[in-house]
TrEMBL record, chain A:
GO molecular function: ATP binding; enzyme regulator activity
Protein's name according to its UniProt entry: P-II family nitrogen regulator
Positions of post-translational O-UMP-tyrosine modification: Y51
GO CC annotations, alphabetized: cytosol
Native source organism of the sequence: Arenimonas terrae
Family, as annotated: Belongs to the P(II) protein family.
Pfam families: P-II (PF00543)
Amino acid sequence: MKMVMAIIKPFKLDDVREALSEVGVTGVTVTEVKGFGRQKGHTELYRGAEYVVDFLPKIKLEVAVTTDQVERVVEAIQSAANTGKIGDGKIFVYELEKVLRIRTGELDGDAL
Amino acid sequence: MVPTKPHRPLGFRALPGLALLLPGLALPGWVQAAPPTLNTGDTAWMIVATVLVLMMTLPGLALFYAGMVRSKNVLSVLMQCFAITALVSVLWVVYGYSLVFDTTGMEKGVVNFNSFVGGFGKAFLAGVGTDSLVYGIPESVFITFQMTFAVITPALIVGAFAERMKFSALLVFMALWFTLVYAPIAHMVWSGDGGLMWDWGVLDFAGGTVVHINAGIAGLVAALVLGKRKGYPTTAMPPHNLGYTVIGASLLWVGWFGFNAGSAVAANGTAGMAMLVTQVAAAAAALTWMFAEWVIHRKASVLGIVSGAVAGLVAITPASGTAGPMGALAIGAAAGLICFVFSTSIKRSLGYDDSLDVFGVHAIGGIVGAILTGVFAAPVLGGFGTVTDIGAQVWIQAKGVGFTVIYTGVATLVILKAIQWTMGLRVSEEAESEGLDIALHNERGYNL
């Protein structure tokens, strides 16, 4: 099993959610986050006082999937979240040791 | 340089009161004093005007400021405006009205103690009943109208020390400042013959000197004495809700018709012209600030355009009884540009932390307006005043500005220092970082 974590532009969330449904993903956790990467921040100006806003709002998605699903899920996120401009985000994939569904106690593949 | 007195061309009544600060000019109504009879039209308008001016403070100014602070301090600013309104209203009926409008001992052209401050003859509103009249309106209405001016002036100062003053110290400061600064300045300008600046011939129709320069200078002194907010200017302190600020500025704009047109203390042609020039100046200044910012910082901002409108309203205040619409265009444009420069580059380069630009908008806008009042009151420039020698009138206006700046500056400094040495002015560093809402009031503005 793998955990796919993606940082995307907030306005792309709906597209990504649809793309994930199409490849059979049944659950996603979404968090509003802030951060910076190569896009850097932007400046705001109030009565001549200029503030550099370093951290831009992004969306963090976490999707737990079986190993054979990973490639399709990563592709789906990449194609749905891609605008071709700087700041589109990144996708991280890491090992997932164990999954348990709280209600039934089902484990791993059955719990996804 | 004092102008020869009486020449009041306009049809308005000059009440010594607030509005006309046209000493030279305003005499007739005041002086000739045929026993006034109740004018129901004037009374109806003045009741409305009074409510409009109260609306400028609550919720206008309160929201204007509340939107500009950080979210952890939103309630503290609203609280300060609300508490000042209540405090000054009480002080006003106890002795404030008397200190401003008791004319006992005053004589035209004579400078004595009562040229500076009124006595206690009207303390506790002695002698005021339902039959008492001032200029054709019930004295009760006049008292309440003037009260709303006394309320908004100290409330304006709040913006200068926002986000760092102790609430207890604020209440003491406001009570002392109202007593020792607002009351004497208002008396000198508005009480009629024998009042210091009234006798000089200073033109201040609706309170450019009494309200805006007064509050703006006090704000600068307060910002300097209290010191900068922790982290200023390196930490970002952007306004937390500019929507509030826009609503507040809009309420100020609408309320200002009560402020300026109400200062005619009548429903007449002067009030109508005051209304017109108020709108014109606010619009001109809003555009000027917006375009100046657009050119210099490459974006037209919401905070910029509303700040410009307020600057224009401030500047037209002293001139609103004497300037014509074209004069108002010029006054508004000048105020928009000059206040923009003061609130942005000059403030940053001098380094003081006037959090919400009380000095840059109110003192500077007030001074621009006070000086230009002397220019655009001249009929040759489309004004409705009696000014023929513009240079002489400008000199009188400058004297009024200079006196107010010095008196207010010194008196405010003394009051603040006295409080600083006794009870202290600032909240602790910890309270300041936590935010005044929680630290001082045990509440938060947003429980989301």
